[in-house]
Amino acid sequence: MTAIEKPADATAEKEQSLIARIRDGESGLFAELVKPYERRVYVIALALLRNEADAEEVAQETILKAFTHLQQFRGESRFSTWLIQIAVNEARMRQRKQHSQLFEPITELNEEEGSYTPRDFADWREIPSEALERSEFRTLLSKALASLAEKYRQVFLLRDVQHMSIEETARLLNISVASVKTRLLRARLMLRDTLAPMFADGWFTRRPFGKGNNPW
Amino acid sequence: MVVNCEQVWQEISNYLEDEVNPELRAAMEMHFHECKRCTAVLDGTRNVMQLYADERSIELPQGFTARWQSRLLEYSPRPRGTAYGWVLAAAALALISGSFALTTLDAHSLSALRSYHAQPGNNLPAGMMVAISSNGKTFHVPGCRYLHKHENENVRLVAASEAIREGYVPCIRCLREYLNR
Protein backbone atom coordinates (compact mmCIF):
# COMPACT_ATOMS: atom_id res chain seq x y z
CA MET A 1 0.00 0.00 0.00
CA THR A 2 2.63 2.48 1.04
CA ALA A 3 4.71 1.47 -1.91
CA ILE A 4 1.92 2.52 -4.21
CA GLU A 5 1.34 5.82 -2.48
CA LYS A 6 4.95 6.85 -2.44
CA PRO A 7 5.34 8.06 -6.02
CA ALA A 8 2.27 10.24 -5.70
CA ASP A 9 3.62 11.76 -2.50
CA ALA A 10 6.95 12.36 -4.11
CA THR A 11 5.20 14.23 -6.92
CA ALA A 12 3.25 16.33 -4.45
CA GLU A 13 6.41 17.13 -2.53
CA LYS A 14 8.31 18.08 -5.64
CA GLU A 15 5.41 20.29 -6.69
CA GLN A 16 5.31 22.03 -3.35
CA SER A 17 8.95 22.89 -3.46
CA LEU A 18 8.54 24.11 -7.04
CA ILE A 19 5.61 26.28 -5.98
CA ALA A 20 7.58 27.73 -3.10
CA ARG A 21 10.45 28.60 -5.39
CA ILE A 22 8.14 30.16 -7.97
CA ARG A 23 6.56 32.30 -5.27
CA ASP A 24 10.02 33.38 -4.25
CA GLY A 25 10.58 34.75 -7.68
CA GLU A 26 11.82 31.88 -9.81
CA SER A 27 8.89 32.26 -12.14
CA GLY A 28 10.68 30.45 -14.93
CA LEU A 29 9.95 27.21 -13.11
CA PHE A 30 6.23 27.54 -13.63
CA ALA A 31 6.40 25.86 -17.02
CA GLU A 32 7.98 22.85 -15.39
CA LEU A 33 5.22 22.72 -12.80
CA VAL A 34 2.44 22.81 -15.38
CA LYS A 35 3.93 20.66 -18.11
CA PRO A 36 2.79 17.28 -16.68
CA TYR A 37 -0.81 18.51 -16.73
CA GLU A 38 -0.96 20.22 -20.12
CA ARG A 39 -2.74 17.27 -21.68
CA ARG A 40 -5.34 17.08 -18.93
CA VAL A 41 -6.05 20.77 -19.20
CA TYR A 42 -6.42 20.44 -22.94
CA VAL A 43 -8.67 17.39 -22.82
CA ILE A 44 -10.95 19.02 -20.24
CA ALA A 45 -11.27 22.05 -22.45
CA LEU A 46 -11.84 19.87 -25.47
CA ALA A 47 -14.60 18.03 -23.65
CA LEU A 48 -16.42 21.20 -22.69
CA LEU A 49 -15.94 23.13 -25.89
CA ARG A 50 -16.67 22.31 -29.45
CA ASN A 51 -13.41 22.56 -31.24
CA GLU A 52 -9.70 22.20 -30.89
CA ALA A 53 -8.88 25.85 -31.45
CA ASP A 54 -11.14 26.92 -28.58
CA ALA A 55 -9.76 24.15 -26.41
CA GLU A 56 -6.21 25.30 -26.99
CA GLU A 57 -7.09 28.91 -26.33
CA VAL A 58 -8.76 27.96 -23.06
CA ALA A 59 -5.81 25.77 -22.11
CA GLN A 60 -3.49 28.73 -22.59
CA GLU A 61 -5.73 31.04 -20.59
CA THR A 62 -5.87 28.44 -17.84
CA ILE A 63 -2.12 28.20 -17.61
CA LEU A 64 -1.68 31.98 -17.58
CA LYS A 65 -4.36 32.36 -14.94
CA ALA A 66 -2.81 29.69 -12.75
CA PHE A 67 0.47 31.51 -13.11
CA THR A 68 -0.87 34.91 -12.09
CA HIS A 69 -3.00 33.49 -9.30
CA LEU A 70 -0.51 31.07 -7.88
CA GLN A 71 -0.47 33.07 -4.65
CA GLN A 72 -4.06 32.00 -4.14
CA PHE A 73 -3.27 28.32 -4.30
CA ARG A 74 -3.41 27.25 -0.69
CA GLY A 75 -2.20 23.73 -1.05
CA GLU A 76 -5.39 22.28 0.40
CA SER A 77 -5.95 20.30 -2.75
CA ARG A 78 -3.53 18.93 -5.25
CA PHE A 79 -2.11 21.42 -7.67
CA SER A 80 -3.59 19.41 -10.54
CA THR A 81 -7.08 19.59 -9.01
CA TRP A 82 -6.76 23.33 -8.65
CA LEU A 83 -5.50 23.68 -12.22
CA ILE A 84 -8.33 21.57 -13.62
CA GLN A 85 -10.86 23.67 -11.72
CA ILE A 86 -9.47 26.78 -13.38
CA ALA A 87 -9.70 25.05 -16.75
CA VAL A 88 -13.34 24.18 -16.10
CA ASN A 89 -14.14 27.75 -15.12
CA GLU A 90 -12.36 29.15 -18.14
CA ALA A 91 -14.13 26.74 -20.46
CA ARG A 92 -17.49 27.63 -18.93
CA MET A 93 -16.80 31.30 -19.34
CA ARG A 94 -16.08 30.72 -22.98
CA GLN A 95 -19.24 28.65 -23.36
CA ARG A 96 -21.24 31.50 -21.96
CA LYS A 97 -19.62 33.94 -24.33
CA GLN A 98 -20.56 31.70 -27.20
CA HIS A 99 -24.10 31.47 -25.89
CA SER A 100 -23.96 27.76 -26.10
CA GLN A 101 -26.18 25.71 -23.92
CA LEU A 102 -24.94 24.89 -20.48
CA PHE A 103 -27.85 22.65 -19.75
CA GLU A 104 -29.39 20.01 -21.91
CA PRO A 105 -32.96 20.64 -22.93
CA ILE A 106 -35.25 18.41 -20.89
CA THR A 107 -36.72 16.79 -23.98
CA GLU A 108 -33.42 15.17 -24.73
CA LEU A 109 -33.52 13.13 -21.59
CA ASN A 110 -36.20 10.83 -22.90
CA GLU A 111 -34.41 10.14 -26.07
CA GLU A 112 -31.69 8.42 -24.12
CA GLU A 113 -34.04 5.87 -22.69
CA GLY A 114 -34.24 3.94 -25.93
CA SER A 115 -31.84 1.03 -26.10
CA TYR A 116 -28.85 0.99 -28.38
CA THR A 117 -28.34 -1.89 -30.73
CA PRO A 118 -24.84 -2.58 -31.94
CA ARG A 119 -24.63 -2.37 -35.71
CA ASP A 120 -21.69 -4.59 -36.19
CA PHE A 121 -20.60 -7.82 -34.61
CA ALA A 122 -17.14 -8.10 -36.00
CA ASP A 123 -14.90 -10.02 -33.70
CA TRP A 124 -12.26 -7.66 -32.43
CA ARG A 125 -10.25 -9.50 -29.87
CA GLU A 126 -6.88 -7.90 -29.85
CA ILE A 127 -5.57 -4.39 -29.78
CA PRO A 128 -2.42 -4.03 -31.78
CA SER A 129 -0.35 -2.75 -28.88
CA GLU A 130 2.09 -0.74 -30.92
CA ALA A 131 -0.66 0.75 -33.05
CA LEU A 132 -0.83 3.87 -30.90
CA GLU A 133 2.67 4.73 -31.99
CA ARG A 134 1.37 5.26 -35.47
CA SER A 135 -0.05 8.62 -36.28
CA GLU A 136 -2.56 7.22 -38.81
CA PHE A 137 -3.99 5.16 -36.05
CA ARG A 138 -4.26 8.10 -33.67
CA THR A 139 -5.93 10.09 -36.42
CA LEU A 140 -8.38 7.24 -36.78
CA LEU A 141 -9.20 7.39 -33.10
CA SER A 142 -9.74 11.14 -33.10
CA LYS A 143 -11.92 10.93 -36.18
CA ALA A 144 -14.05 8.25 -34.57
CA LEU A 145 -14.37 10.35 -31.44
CA ALA A 146 -15.18 13.48 -33.39
CA SER A 147 -17.98 11.65 -35.17
CA LEU A 148 -19.86 11.24 -31.87
CA ALA A 149 -22.62 13.66 -31.00
CA GLU A 150 -21.58 16.36 -28.59
CA LYS A 151 -23.17 14.92 -25.47
CA TYR A 152 -21.62 11.51 -25.96
CA ARG A 153 -18.22 12.89 -26.80
CA GLN A 154 -18.17 15.02 -23.65
CA VAL A 155 -18.98 12.18 -21.32
CA PHE A 156 -16.57 9.83 -23.02
CA LEU A 157 -13.71 12.33 -22.91
CA LEU A 158 -14.17 13.08 -19.24
CA ARG A 159 -14.66 9.53 -18.10
CA ASP A 160 -12.60 7.32 -20.40
CA VAL A 161 -9.91 9.71 -21.54
CA GLN A 162 -9.60 11.94 -18.50
CA HIS A 163 -10.37 9.14 -16.03
CA MET A 164 -12.81 11.16 -13.98
CA SER A 165 -15.31 9.31 -11.86
CA ILE A 166 -18.89 9.07 -13.04
CA GLU A 167 -19.96 11.38 -10.22
CA GLU A 168 -17.36 13.98 -11.09
CA THR A 169 -18.38 13.82 -14.72
CA ALA A 170 -22.01 14.32 -13.77
CA ARG A 171 -21.21 17.31 -11.59
CA LEU A 172 -19.01 18.90 -14.19
CA LEU A 173 -21.60 18.62 -16.93
CA ASN A 174 -24.57 19.40 -14.73
CA ILE A 175 -26.36 16.19 -15.59
CA SER A 176 -27.48 13.21 -13.55
CA VAL A 177 -25.36 10.18 -12.81
CA ALA A 178 -27.87 8.06 -14.69
CA SER A 179 -27.46 10.25 -17.78
CA VAL A 180 -23.71 9.92 -17.59
CA LYS A 181 -24.00 6.16 -17.51
CA THR A 182 -26.44 6.01 -20.40
CA ARG A 183 -24.39 8.33 -22.55
CA LEU A 184 -21.22 6.52 -21.67
CA LEU A 185 -22.68 3.22 -22.75
CA ARG A 186 -23.74 4.70 -26.04
CA ALA A 187 -20.48 6.45 -26.65
CA ARG A 188 -18.55 3.25 -26.06
CA LEU A 189 -20.82 1.12 -28.20
CA MET A 190 -20.83 3.63 -31.02
CA LEU A 191 -17.06 3.87 -30.99
CA ARG A 192 -16.86 0.12 -31.05
CA ASP A 193 -19.20 0.03 -34.02
CA THR A 194 -16.94 2.44 -35.82
CA LEU A 195 -13.63 0.87 -34.93
CA ALA A 196 -14.31 -2.86 -34.70
CA PRO A 197 -14.74 -3.53 -38.43
CA MET A 198 -11.36 -1.96 -39.07
CA PHE A 199 -9.61 -4.33 -36.74
CA ALA A 200 -11.66 -7.44 -36.96
CA ASP A 201 -10.15 -8.97 -40.06
CA GLY A 202 -6.72 -7.61 -39.42
CA TRP A 203 -7.41 -5.02 -42.06
CA PHE A 204 -5.67 -2.29 -40.19
CA THR A 205 -2.65 -4.26 -39.15
CA ARG A 206 -2.16 -5.79 -42.56
CA ARG A 207 -2.37 -2.76 -44.71
CA PRO A 208 -0.96 0.53 -43.54
CA PHE A 209 -2.95 3.18 -45.29
CA GLY A 210 -1.40 5.67 -47.55
CA LYS A 211 -2.92 8.50 -49.49
CA GLY A 212 -6.38 7.77 -50.81
CA ASN A 213 -6.42 4.54 -48.90
CA ASN A 214 -8.17 5.67 -45.75
CA PRO A 215 -10.42 3.34 -43.84
CA TRP A 216 -13.22 5.85 -43.35
CA MET B 1 -31.53 -15.42 -13.89
CA VAL B 2 -31.26 -15.42 -17.65
CA VAL B 3 -30.51 -12.40 -19.78
CA ASN B 4 -30.94 -11.90 -23.50
CA CYS B 5 -28.65 -10.07 -25.93
CA GLU B 6 -30.46 -6.78 -25.63
CA GLN B 7 -30.22 -6.77 -21.87
CA VAL B 8 -26.55 -7.60 -22.12
CA TRP B 9 -25.89 -4.64 -24.42
CA GLN B 10 -27.58 -2.27 -22.03
CA GLU B 11 -25.47 -3.46 -19.14
CA ILE B 12 -22.18 -3.99 -20.91
CA SER B 13 -20.77 -0.67 -19.82
CA ASN B 14 -21.69 -1.27 -16.19
CA TYR B 15 -20.31 -4.76 -16.46
CA LEU B 16 -16.95 -3.43 -17.60
CA GLU B 17 -16.99 -0.86 -14.81
CA ASP B 18 -17.71 -3.66 -12.37
CA GLU B 19 -20.97 -2.04 -11.40
CA VAL B 20 -23.39 -4.92 -11.77
CA ASN B 21 -24.56 -7.08 -8.92
CA PRO B 22 -23.18 -10.61 -8.62
CA GLU B 23 -26.35 -12.23 -9.86
CA LEU B 24 -26.45 -10.17 -13.05
CA ARG B 25 -22.74 -10.66 -13.52
CA ALA B 26 -23.14 -14.41 -13.38
CA ALA B 27 -26.03 -14.31 -15.81
CA MET B 28 -24.08 -12.13 -18.21
CA GLU B 29 -21.05 -14.37 -18.03
CA MET B 30 -23.19 -17.34 -18.84
CA HIS B 31 -24.60 -15.46 -21.81
CA PHE B 32 -21.14 -14.49 -23.08
CA HIS B 33 -20.21 -18.12 -22.92
CA GLU B 34 -22.90 -19.01 -25.39
CA CYS B 35 -23.22 -15.90 -27.50
CA LYS B 36 -20.46 -15.07 -29.92
CA ARG B 37 -21.97 -11.76 -30.91
CA CYS B 38 -22.19 -10.45 -27.40
CA THR B 39 -18.66 -11.61 -26.70
CA ALA B 40 -17.53 -9.63 -29.73
CA VAL B 41 -19.32 -6.57 -28.43
CA LEU B 42 -17.78 -7.06 -25.00
CA ASP B 43 -14.24 -7.44 -26.34
CA GLY B 44 -14.63 -4.51 -28.66
CA THR B 45 -16.03 -2.23 -26.01
CA ARG B 46 -13.22 -3.16 -23.65
CA ASN B 47 -10.73 -2.42 -26.42
CA VAL B 48 -12.28 0.97 -27.01
CA MET B 49 -11.95 1.84 -23.34
CA GLN B 50 -8.37 0.64 -23.18
CA LEU B 51 -7.32 2.40 -26.34
CA TYR B 52 -8.67 5.78 -25.35
CA ALA B 53 -7.43 5.41 -21.80
CA ASP B 54 -3.93 5.55 -23.24
CA GLU B 55 -2.60 9.06 -23.14
CA ARG B 56 -1.28 8.78 -26.64
CA SER B 57 -4.79 8.38 -28.03
CA ILE B 58 -5.65 12.07 -27.92
CA GLU B 59 -2.91 14.05 -29.55
CA LEU B 60 -2.13 17.55 -28.50
CA PRO B 61 -2.21 19.93 -31.46
CA GLN B 62 1.19 20.40 -33.04
CA GLY B 63 3.15 23.12 -31.34
CA PHE B 64 0.77 23.20 -28.41
CA THR B 65 3.47 23.17 -25.74
CA ALA B 66 5.62 25.73 -27.47
CA ARG B 67 2.67 28.09 -27.83
CA TRP B 68 1.62 28.15 -24.19
CA GLN B 69 5.20 28.37 -23.10
CA SER B 70 5.86 31.38 -25.26
CA ARG B 71 2.70 33.06 -24.01
CA LEU B 72 3.86 32.39 -20.49
CA LEU B 73 7.15 34.06 -21.32
CA GLU B 74 5.43 37.09 -22.77
CA TYR B 75 3.38 37.32 -19.65
CA SER B 76 5.97 38.98 -17.58
CA PRO B 77 5.63 38.70 -13.81
CA ARG B 78 5.11 41.90 -11.88
CA PRO B 79 8.58 43.21 -11.44
CA ARG B 80 9.71 43.50 -7.87
CA GLY B 81 11.60 46.75 -8.09
CA THR B 82 13.38 45.73 -11.24
CA ALA B 83 12.38 45.18 -14.80
CA TYR B 84 14.67 42.26 -15.23
CA GLY B 85 12.22 40.20 -17.25
CA TRP B 86 11.57 43.01 -19.61
CA VAL B 87 15.21 43.80 -20.00
CA LEU B 88 15.66 40.22 -21.11
CA ALA B 89 12.68 40.47 -23.42
CA ALA B 90 13.96 43.71 -24.87
CA ALA B 91 17.39 42.21 -25.37
CA ALA B 92 15.83 39.26 -27.15
CA LEU B 93 13.78 41.61 -29.27
CA ALA B 94 16.83 43.62 -30.17
CA LEU B 95 18.52 40.45 -31.26
CA ILE B 96 15.81 39.28 -33.57
CA SER B 97 14.59 42.57 -34.93
CA GLY B 98 15.87 43.97 -38.17
CA SER B 99 17.17 47.37 -39.01
CA PHE B 100 13.67 48.73 -38.87
CA ALA B 101 13.18 47.96 -35.23
CA LEU B 102 14.47 49.46 -32.04
CA THR B 103 18.03 48.34 -32.40
CA THR B 104 19.38 51.53 -30.99
CA LEU B 105 17.66 51.02 -27.68
CA ASP B 106 19.97 50.59 -24.78
CA ALA B 107 18.30 47.71 -22.96
CA HIS B 108 19.76 48.71 -19.61
CA SER B 109 18.21 52.12 -19.68
CA LEU B 110 14.68 50.73 -19.89
CA SER B 111 12.51 51.67 -16.98
CA ALA B 112 9.85 49.35 -15.61
CA LEU B 113 6.95 48.95 -17.97
CA ARG B 114 3.86 50.83 -16.98
CA SER B 115 1.45 48.11 -18.01
CA TYR B 116 1.73 44.39 -17.47
CA HIS B 117 -0.69 43.64 -20.23
CA ALA B 118 1.73 44.82 -22.78
CA GLN B 119 2.76 43.22 -25.96
CA PRO B 120 6.18 44.07 -27.20
CA GLY B 121 6.16 46.15 -30.33
CA ASN B 122 8.53 44.15 -32.43
CA ASN B 123 8.44 46.14 -35.59
CA LEU B 124 7.95 49.66 -34.37
CA PRO B 125 10.10 52.13 -36.24
CA ALA B 126 12.29 53.72 -33.58
CA GLY B 127 11.86 57.20 -34.89
CA MET B 128 8.07 57.07 -35.28
CA MET B 129 6.42 59.90 -33.39
CA VAL B 130 3.88 58.77 -30.85
CA ALA B 131 1.65 60.49 -28.32
CA ILE B 132 1.86 59.89 -24.59
CA SER B 133 0.16 61.44 -21.60
CA SER B 134 2.28 61.93 -18.53
CA ASN B 135 0.42 59.52 -16.26
CA GLY B 136 -0.70 57.11 -18.93
CA LYS B 137 0.65 53.68 -19.65
CA THR B 138 0.41 53.38 -23.38
CA PHE B 139 1.66 55.32 -26.32
CA HIS B 140 -0.48 55.98 -29.35
CA VAL B 141 -0.55 57.19 -32.88
CA PRO B 142 -1.37 60.90 -32.49
CA GLY B 143 -5.14 61.27 -32.64
CA CYS B 144 -5.92 57.74 -31.42
CA ARG B 145 -9.16 57.83 -29.52
CA TYR B 146 -7.82 55.53 -26.85
CA LEU B 147 -5.34 58.12 -25.71
CA HIS B 148 -6.77 59.13 -22.36
CA LYS B 149 -5.89 62.50 -20.99
CA HIS B 150 -6.91 63.52 -17.54
CA GLU B 151 -6.99 67.05 -16.26
CA ASN B 152 -3.64 68.67 -15.66
CA GLU B 153 -1.98 66.07 -17.83
CA ASN B 154 0.18 66.90 -20.75
CA VAL B 155 0.20 65.05 -23.98
CA ARG B 156 3.63 64.93 -25.51
CA LEU B 157 4.81 63.75 -28.87
CA VAL B 158 7.96 61.70 -28.59
CA ALA B 159 9.83 59.11 -30.61
CA ALA B 160 8.64 55.55 -30.07
CA SER B 161 12.06 54.58 -28.77
CA GLU B 162 11.81 57.32 -26.15
CA ALA B 163 8.30 56.25 -25.11
CA ILE B 164 9.49 52.69 -24.67
CA ARG B 165 12.49 53.87 -22.72
CA GLU B 166 10.10 55.59 -20.33
CA GLY B 167 8.17 52.37 -19.86
CA TYR B 168 5.20 53.08 -22.09
CA VAL B 169 3.77 50.18 -24.06
CA PRO B 170 2.21 50.33 -27.52
CA CYS B 171 -1.55 50.77 -27.77
CA ILE B 172 -2.99 47.51 -28.99
CA ARG B 173 -5.55 49.31 -31.14
CA CYS B 174 -3.81 52.02 -33.08
CA LEU B 175 -0.45 50.27 -33.18
CA ARG B 176 -1.82 46.83 -33.83
CA GLU B 177 0.03 46.27 -37.06
CA TYR B 178 3.34 46.57 -35.25
CA LEU B 179 2.57 44.13 -32.49
CA ASN B 180 3.74 40.59 -32.26
CA ARG B 181 0.54 38.83 -33.10
How is this structure best described in words?
The complex is a heterodimer of chains A (216) and B (181). By secondary structure, chain A is mostly helical. Chain A has two domains: 8-97, RNA polymerase sigma factor, region 2, helix turn helix motif (Rna Polymerase Sigma Factor, Chain: A, Orthogonal Bundle), CATH 1.10.1740; 121-206, Arc Repressor Mutant, subunit A. Chain A contains eleven helices and no strands. The longest helix of chain A has 24 residues, at 177-200. By secondary structure, chain B is mainly alpha-helical. In chain B, 40% of the residues lie in helices and 8% in strands. Chain B is built from six helices and four strands. Chain B has helices spanning 5-16, 22-34, 36-53, 64-74, 84-96, 160-165; strands at 129-133, 138-139, 155-159, 169-170. In chain B, the strands form two sheets. In chain B, strands 1-3 form a two-stranded antiparallel ribbon. In chain B, helix 1 packs parallel to helix 3 (36-53) and helix 2 crosses helix 3 (36-53). The chains are: A mainly alpha (216), B mainly alpha (181). At the A-B interface, helix 2, helix 3, helix 4, helix 7 and helix 8 of A face helix 1, helix 3 and helix 4 of B.
The overall pLDDT of chain A, averaged over residues, is: 81
Please estimate the helix content of chain A.
55-70%
The general outline of chain A is globular
The CATH superfamily of the largest domain in chain A is RNA polymerase sigma factor, region 2, helix turn helix motif
How is the main sheet of chain B built? Answer: 2 strands, antiparallel
Residue windows where pLDDT falls under 50 for at least 5 positions of chain A: 1-5, 104-110, 205-213
Please report the two chains with the greatest interface, counting residues with C-beta closer than 8 angstroms to the partner's C-beta: A-B, 53 and 41 residues
What structural class results from the helix and strand content of chain A?
Answer: mainly alpha
Biggest sheet descriptor of chain A: none
Task: Indicate the mean pLDDT of chain B.
Answer: 77
